[in-house]
## 1
Amino acid sequence: MLTLDKDAFKEMFSEIIKEEVTKALQDIRTTQLPPMLTKQQLEQLLNIKHAKASELLNRPDFPVFREAGVLVPTHLLFIWIEKNTRWIEDNTKYFGKGITA
């Protein structure tokens, strides 16, 4: 029977999460999306309601291009998602942070 200590388990789990997040982001990036998303496209892509989309679009750190209406640059959206995925940042080495017990 194979047994793992706590640190080995955390390391394995972190690597699995990192691989899956990387794969998911790559899959999303290779999907044909327009360079700029409308509010409705943002809602569909993130599977969120109108109110949550409005909340995101009004955040000062959320990437919005307002010079031609309310548009979200697709590439900046994915960068924002990566930077704001707290669980990954807090619990893996994906962003260069170590795991603390």
## 2
Amino acid sequence: MITFITALVLLLLGYLTYGKFVDKTFKSDGDKSTPAHTLEDGVDFVPMNSNKNAFIQILNIAGVGPIFGPILGALYGPSAFLWIVFGSIFAGGVHDYLTGMISLRFGGAHLPALASQFLGKAFSHIVNFFTLLLLLLVGTVFVSAPAKMINELLSNDAATLPLIVLCIFSYYIIATVLPIDKVIGKIYPVLGFLLLVSAAGICIGMFLYGNPIPELNFENMHPKGIPYYPVIFLTISCGALSGFHATQSPIISRTINNEKDGRKVFYGMMIVEAVIAMIWAASAMSITNGNDLSILMENGGPAAVVNKIATVFLGTVGGTIAVLGVIVLPITSGDTSFRAARMIIADYLKIDQKELKNRFMVAIPIFAISYILTHMDFQLLWRYFSWANQVTAAIALWIGAIYLYEKKTHYIIALIPAFFITSVVNSFLFYDPTIGFGFDITTSNWIGLAMTLMITILFFRVMKKRTEKSNNI
């Protein structure tokens, strides 16, 4: 219990201290006009207050990631807490803040447009592909996961599952094409409250239930002996560091009323997500040991663990409310995944989005592809999502490092997490036999480190040339 409480305190201190330092490093300016005002169109660019933006942001970025990921990460034991706490403070919070604020400074630009600005137009096409792939995978996963959970909650009848999927897709289409303040802006504050209440209920239930949360140790307790590095850094992404957030923060950069809201909306909501992740990881460790948790997940997946946690700590009625809070998460990230995909394609193809028919023209093919993907194996989808997710995070952090370097400020705050997560995705690609090459872990880690060092050397060489060119002008 001491470890858990200490972790929550560290997260709060991280927001109050390091979050403030990041904001100061970026030099947010409350007197600058934001895209919500300069480009207001009543659809995507709409000024909203910081509380509404914060609620939308936490629901955008959360999904099932800060629940399913930490539950899977709980198999490693209390060492999983380290990545949640320090990852969110020094990597995830920086990633979300910089992505959102740089986007804001460039007219609400999405990640591919930022890549074109900072990494070159040729590379932006690759980023565009990766970003759209990630959004499609996220949107599809966040149709499948809540549909199964709703079906289990109602009847567990396989015949009703396609109808639930259809209902979720119908809502996603509405949320994707209508102005952001008409659906998302109105219902998200309510859903955000439900999310926070369910997480708080689980947290209180842990204390009342009396089962101790394991204290911190550095032992890898995974029943199957899966290595901590690099796997846990992809297993727990939302709740620590997630490239998916780089696709969501630009949505809110288009509705930010004042630049000074950025620390609360972007960095702060990452910390809130980390608190949610801590609660679910701790609760999974509290009610089961590693072997029991592994068996439960093999039989019913993370959703089965969610149901058990909610029922044990809150009873049947309270548990049902908590599960509803969990179902809210993927649905409110799925809708903005498709919305972000629509905006990215529209920006890329220069299709004006003021006309409703133009929004439908872009959105319908996206949903058609996603529907086809729902017939793929969920576990395989999740694995591809996890890797693509952290590749996107690496790209966003490198963009942040370049931006801060060019502004002659503390670029190290982005460079260190960029280096780290790049080494992780490189190592995982060579280690994992499903999506990668299946090398042994030692070889994979050395190759991953060598590739990352080369990328870092390239970063400094390119930045040196840009500086010299700038000085000669």
